[in-house]
Amino acid sequence: MINIIIPAYNEEKRIEKTLEAYGSFFNKLEQENIVNSEILIVINNTTDKTEEIVRKYCEKYKQIRYLNFKERGKGFAIIEGFKDALKRDNKLIGFVDADMATSPQAFYDLIIKIKNFDGVIANRWDKKSKISNRTFFRNVTSNSFNFIIRSLFLMPYRDTQCGAKLFKRNVIEKILPGLNLTQWAFDINLLYLCGKNKFKIKQIPTVWEDKENSTMGNVPKTSLQMFLGILRLRLINSFFEPILRPVKFILRWADNLINK
């Protein structure tokens, strides 16, 4: 069984297309005895009609189920999805964004290619990837962010933020207790723990389409949140953490301030 987590915050304008695409695609794979799956929508702090739309698709496709929380945050939603997925016999557990930037066919490619690896992540910067509608500004900010991450954490991953990742069950069981960043630095926290625990993570080319109405919202504000998040993560995992605790508290205070 494969569990695909989709975090959803105020997605009424986009979630229907995503649920239809993923529901029909994986329903067909199950009917053909290729793979059994469940698609878990984790609604978080939604104030629109997202839940109403999701309930309709739960009735249409047996693979789709959902959770609903008052707390907000992509990382929070995925962590709660991980906890729920571990309650059942899911051998593979992954997540994907709700905006259909990654099609079900592209996500299925992760399933095919995980093989003997502990996890597999989509890499939009691979030369074989097919990317459409990505703006020059997004390219510059993404490249800059990736450079900072690789410099601070010595990570081999060229694309930590692509919302299409898949892991074997034992990986999630091992790293779940250490996942403590629930906002934009969540993916880095996750991949850092994978590296720390010597898990083998494969990067593969993908097909990805930049979508309008991104939940990133205010890009300068989000970029600052991400930067503060990775600094906190670096401090938490530093040998000098005890003497740098005042700095960590200042970063947390700043992060809380801009999140108000």
Topology summary:
Layout: E1 2-8, H1 15-31, E2 37-44, H2 50-60, E3 64-69, H3 74-85, E4 92-96, H4 104-113, E5 119-123, E6 130-132, H5 136-153, E7 164-168, H6 169-175, H7 186-196, E8 201-205, E9 207-209, H8 219-236, H9 245-258
Parallel strand pairs: 1-2, 1-4, 2-3, 5-8, 6-9
Antiparallel strand pairs: 4-7, 5-7
Helix pairs in contact: 1-2, 5-8, 8-9
Commentary on this structure:
The protein is α/β, with parallel strands linked by helices and 260 residues long. It folds into two domains: 2-133 and 159-207, Spore Coat Polysaccharide Biosynthesis Protein SpsA, Chain A (Alpha-Beta Complex); 217-260, no CATH class. Helices cover 45% and strands 18% of the residues. The chain is built from nine helices and nine strands. The chain has helices at residues 15-31, 50-60, 74-85, 104-113, 136-153, 169-175, 186-196, 219-236, 245-258, and strands at 2-8, 37-44, 64-69, 92-96, 119-123, 130-132, 164-168, 201-205, 207-209. It has a seven-stranded mixed sheet, with helices on both faces. A two-stranded parallel sheet has the order 6-9. It is globular, with a radius of gyration of 18 Å. The chain starts with a strand and ends with a helix. Residues 239-244 have low confidence and may be disordered.
